[in-house]
Design goal:
Blueprint (H helix, E strand, L loop, with lengths): L5 E8 L5 E9 L4 H4 L9 H9 L2 H6 L32 H10 L1 H4 L2 H16 L2 E2 L7 E2 L2 H11 L3 H9 E6 L2 E6 L2 H31 L8 E7 L11 H31 L13 H8 L5 H10 L5 H11 L6 E3 L6 E5 L4 E5 L3 H6 L4 H8 L4 H7 L22 H17 L22 H10 L2 H8 L5 E4 H8 L12 H11 L7 E3 L3 E4 L3 H125 L1
Antiparallel strand pairs: 1-2, 1-7, 3-4, 5-6, 8-9, 9-10, 11-13, 12-13
Length: about 650
């Protein structure tokens, strides 16, 4: 993460373009994070990963006491409980970490040693002292210092003595002076940071050894600089000054590269650019880094004097730069000063500048580490006669003091020199929002980054002179509409000159090159505005015609729709009438058929009635006739009987 340290990654290529190696340089590792973190922040991931991932066998091998597997037991991890760690957000777990180490041949057999050093760092964070402030320091828990000594393979008593006391030379003799609690805590923190940073540098060095290929044929490379951005916190110290100074150096290079690319374009087109200038941050860079009088130079000088202090150094830079446009004093805080950087003003707190530049590590502790029984610890603390890793402090056996800023300035100058000898491309990364959410662009957040990254300043630099460059054909074809046709009969440079003159552009506001025209600030905007006004006027006429056409078309559609509706209505009415007539006829036919059927039925009923009547009369007649016959028969019989009786 480039917010924790800067890096310059180089990919090496042969003359034929084949990649054959790689190496990395690092700058200003954020060591302060190891011993203190801002609220809501974590320490370095590897500390959590190792603290959780060591096996029981490894803990036994390291002689760690019970409870060493509890992540929350280490103060440097800044945890109340293990559940506070979001393990899913970590880049890897312990298994993946060990596999990554195994890939590097020179690190594979050093894994156990690396874990020892990291655990020593964690246990140093648990080391505390009895008393407070100016009291003599005494270790509160001897078991903690014993665990650290065991991990670093040194004597417990010697380690405790090196932390709690300091040897001072008085004449020809050495005397031992007890450290105060506050100073002993600083010594402990210095050892903690030294162990971690030296382990970090060692791992980077071993990675480089495994990847880097040396030789003249490796002069071809592609490099990527990923460096910390501009920083401004409520309290700013030496770390922020170094980071912001690095950004100032790169911003100067960025502005110069952008402007020089413009100048080369002018020269290519044969344009006189003698009167074109641009503002850069050269004066501010000199304010910080100028030999003898720069802020960092005076800091290095102050560290050389035994009686040097933050206050005397601050007084020197105030006297030296009182009239500098980019430097100002803080009236309400006598220990602070303000520098006007390209993104804005930053107030630095001078307290602790000298101590941080000296990067104090007790010489007694250095010697103790150099005589450790562990060869790996010895390696970390051995004096290197060659150039140290970028950003680290080099200490030579000479009269001149070399502090943190000296190593940093040397590395930074080497980086800038390397970059200046290459074809440089700049990539500005902008964070769209502070919530780490996709598709959410917050204007204020992005605007602030454009200012702090120097993009706005670079654009302002390029806007000096003639920022807009157009080929002849493009200018003529795009803006021929805004001038009379008589001014566009010519082609090439003559046509461009005639067009611009007809458009009211003065000769001072443009330059004509071999294939392009260079327009001054605002000229292209004026031409674009006139073009848009012309197009707008024509568009209004076109809109009027189109709207009239659309209205007529709409009216015709409405009329046609109305005629179709009327026709459909008439057809519907005719169909309804026809249906009604057919229904009427059908109804009348049904009624006629019903009447005929009824008449027929009545006729048949009448016939039936007549038939029954006649049958009834016939039957009545027959009964009457039969009755008469019976009566006649009876009378005849009676007469016969009477006659017979008479006869008798």
């Amino acid at each position: 993460n480039s917010s924790r340290f800067g890096k310059f990654l180089t990919l090496q290529f042969s003359a034929s373009g084949r990649m054959q190696g790689a190496f990395m340089k690092t700058y200003l590792l954020e060591k302060s994070r190891i011993t203190s973190q801002l609220p809501g922040e974590q320490n370095y991931h590897v500390l959590y990963t190792v603290a959780k991932g060591l096996s029981s066998a490894q803990r036994t091998e390291f002689g760690l006491p019970k409870g060493s597997d509890a992540v929350e037991s280490f103060k440097l991890l800044n945890l109340k409980k293990a559940g506070d760690v979001k393990w899913a957000d970590f880049p890897c777990d312990f298994k993946e970490l060990t596999e990554a180490f195994a890939v590097i041949p020179s690190l594979n057999d050093k894994q156990s040693s690396c874990w020892r050093v990291i655990m020593a760092v964690l246990y140093l964070g648990n080391l505390s002292f009895t008393g407070q402030g100016e009291d003599d320091a005494k270790v509160k828990d001897p078991a903690v210092v014993a665990a650290v000594a065991r991990l670093l393979s040194c004597e417990t008593a010697q380690l405790e003595k090196a932390i709690c006391t300091q040897n001072m030379k008085a004449g020809l003799d050495w005397i031992s002076k007890p450290n105060t609690v506050a100073y002993a805590s600083d010594v402990k923190n210095a050892l903690t940071k030294a162990l971690y940073s030296r382990l970090f540098d060692y791992i980077v060095e071993m990675v480089n050894v495994s990847l880097e290929k040396s030789g003249d044929e490796m002069r071809y490379f592609i490099g990527a600089v990923d460096i910390f951005g501009f920083e401004c916190f409520p309290t700013n110290s030496l770390e922020q000054l170094c980071i912001n100074f690095a950004n100032e150096k790169l911003q100067k290079m960025f502005t110069q590269a952008v402007f020089e690319s413009v100048l080369s374009e002018y020269q290519k087109e044969g344009i006189d650019v003698g009167d074109i200038t641009y503002e850069d941050n050269k004066l501010l860079v000199e304010l910080i880094d100028k030999p003898a009088t720069g802020i960092l130079s005076l800091l290095a000088e102050e560290c050389f004097f035994p009686s040097g202090s933050d206050a005397s150094w601050l007084q020197k830079i105030k006297s030296q730069h009182a009239k500098h446009a980019n430097f100002s004093e803080e009236r309400l805080d006598r220990t602070a000063f303000t520098i006007s950087h390209y993104p804005g003003k930053v107030t630095y707190q001078s307290t602790g500048f000298l101590e941080k530049n000296k990067d104090p590590l007790s010489q007694d502790l250095v010697v103790l580490m150099q005589f450790s029984d562990d060869d790996f610890v010895k390696t970390l603390f051995e004096e290197k006669q060659s150039t140290a890793m970028a950003g680290s402090v080099r200490r030579f056996k000479s009269a001149k003091f070399v502090g943190l800023i000296d190593g940093f300035r040397t590395s930074l100058n080497q980086l800038v020199k390397t970059l200046e000898g290459t074809k440089t491309h700049f990539i500005r990364c902008v964070k769209p929002n502070m919530d780490k959410k996709p598709d959410n662009f917050v204007f204020d957040v992005m605007q602030r980054q454009l200012y702090t990254s120097g993009v706005v300043q670079a654009v302002q630099a390029t806007r000096k002179g003639f920022p807009d460059h157009l080929p002849f054909a493009e200018l003529l074809s795009r803006f021929e509409l805004v001038v009379p046709k008589s001014a566009t009969n010519k082609k090439g440079a003559d046509g461009v000159r005639a067009l611009l003159s007809s458009a009211g552009v003065s000769d001072k506001e443009f330059r004509i090159g071999k294939t392009k025209v260079f327009l001054g600030v605002g000229v292209l905007d004026q031409l674009e505005q006139r073009r848009m006004e012309y197009i707008a006027s024509k568009v209004l006429s076109m809109q009027m015609l189109v709207r009239a056409y659309n209205a007529r078309k709409r009216l015709k559609l409405l009329r046609d729709e109305k005629a179709r509706a009327a026709k459909a209505k008439a057809e519907a009415e005719a169909a309804a009438r026809a249906a009604e007539e057919a229904a009427r006829k059908e109804r009348e036919a049904a009624e006629a058929a019903a009447a005929a059927q009824k008449a027929k039925e009545e006729e048949e009923a009448e016939k039936e009635r007549q038939t029954r009547f006649q049958r009834a009369r016939q039957m009545s007649f027959e009964r009457s006739t039969a009755k008469k016959r019976r009566e006649q028969a009876e009378k005849a019989k009676a007469a016969e009987a009477a006659a017979k009786a008479t006869a008798d």
